[in-house]
């Protein structure tokens, strides 16, 4: 496995103008051996955005998730993006755009398919992933970092108990961390992503639990409804039980908290892998 950590803004003009640009990193998990030979097709990959309410980046939703995708035959990446209090919108979204840029820029060297890159996000990381899904083509986003047009476009979204809406069912803490306590109302409305879904939003896989008290299930439901209205294919699973932050729902990611172990809800990952394989036309 090729495992390295890359400071995503190193050597760029952007880094010279932003004192916190040294913070975000992209960690690679690339399969070696026969999988990288010329006799095998280029691999699909998954870029993971862990959650943390835009205040920290959760380790529980990082490497264990990457290892699961890797075991299923996908190359994996983890983005540790900038968070509050040193970063506000659009900095996390710029970090994610830059990470996608780097992956596609290195696709030939890493022997991966630049047209089969999914972005997977949990909780606030789900908001970040979904933000890229709806805003990737924004001219303002492109101009902010001199980015080639479309190089940041995700080919699929995987959203686990995502923060989506800034309305009645908002996880307010995530929006305060992302936008600031006194951000204008129009910015809060803009970042309520159920209103931003458009025809260029990629196919999406969503999962949530009915009993999530931190980020209510309405977040996934409203995003799925918006996808449906735009004719974007999606798969949505609402499991009956489980608190917020389940990650893989097993002992590895529960870190001593039995409430985070749920064998039934853990089925989200096999279901996701099946869906992703169909999206990317993977051969089993």
Mean pLDDT comes to 95
> Spatial order of the strands in the main sheet?
1-2-4-3-5-6-7-8
Question: Count of DSSP E strands?
Answer: 8
Number of domains: 1
Radius of gyration: 18 Å
Helix and strand succession?
A: EHEEHEHHEHHEHHEHEHH
Shape: globular
**CATH C-level:** Alpha Beta
Residues in helices, as a percent range: 25-40%
Main beta-sheet strand count, sense and barrel state: 8 strands, mixed
What attributes does this structure have?
single chain, Rossmann fold, alpha/beta, eight-stranded mixed β-sheet, about 280 residues
Question: Could you describe the 3D structure shown?
Answer:
- The chain is an alpha/beta fold and 284 residues long.
- The protein has a single domain, classed as Rossmann fold (3-Layer(aba) Sandwich), CATH 3.40.50.
- Helix content is 33%, strand content 19%.
- It has an eight-stranded mixed sheet, sandwiched between helices.
- Helix 2 links the parallel strand 3 and strand 4.
- It is globular and about 45 Å long.
- The chain starts with a strand and ends in a 5-residue tail after the last helix.
- The mean pLDDT is 95.
What topology emerges from the helices and strands here?
Elements: E1 2-7, H1 13-17, E2 25-30, E3 43-49, H2 63-71, E4 75-80, H3 91-105, H4 107-110, E5 112-122, H5 124-135, H6 139-145, E6 156-160, H7 172-179, H8 185-190, E7 204-209, H9 218-230, E8 234-239, H10 251-254, H11 268-279
Parallel strand pairs: 3-4, 3-5, 5-6, 6-7, 7-8
Antiparallel strand pairs: 1-2, 2-4
Helix pairs in contact: 3-5
């Amino acid at each position: 496995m090729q495992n390295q950590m890359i400071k995503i803004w190193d050597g760029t003009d952007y880094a010279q103008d932003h004192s916190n640009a040294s913070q975000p990193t992209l960690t690679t998990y690339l399969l070696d051996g026969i999988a990288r030979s010329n006799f095998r097709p280029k691999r699909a990959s998954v870029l993971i955005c862990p959650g943390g309410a835009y205040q920290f980046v959760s380790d529980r939703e990082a490497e264990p998730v990457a290892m699961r995708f890797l075991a299923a035959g996908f190359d994996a990446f983890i983005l540790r993006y900038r968070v509050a209090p040193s970063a506000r919108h659009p900095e996390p979204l710029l970090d994610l755009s830059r990470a996608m840029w780097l992956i596609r820029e290195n696709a030939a060297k890493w022997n991966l398919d630049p047209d089969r890159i999914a972005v997977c996000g949990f909780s606030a990381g789900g908001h970040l992933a979904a933000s890229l899904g709806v805003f990737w083509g924004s001219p303002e986003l492109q101009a902010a970092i001199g980015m080639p047009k479309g190089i940041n476009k995700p080919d699929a979204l995987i959203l686990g108990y995502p923060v989506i809406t800034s309305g009645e069912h908002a996880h307010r803490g995530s929006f305060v961390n992302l936008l600031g306590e006194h951000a204008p109302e129009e910015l809060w409305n803009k970042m309520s992503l159920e209103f931003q879904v458009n025809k260029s939003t990629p196919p999406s896989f969503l999962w949530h639990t009915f009993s999530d008290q931190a980020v209510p299930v309405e977040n996934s439901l409203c995003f799925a409804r918006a996808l449906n209205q735009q004719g974007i294919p999606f798969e949505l699973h609402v499991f009956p039980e489980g608190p917020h932050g389940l990650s893989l729902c097993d002992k590895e990611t529960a870190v001593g908290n039995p409430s985070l172990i749920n064998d039934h809800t853990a089925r989200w990952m096999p279901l996701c892998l099946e869906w992703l394989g169909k999206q990317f036309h993977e051969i089993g």
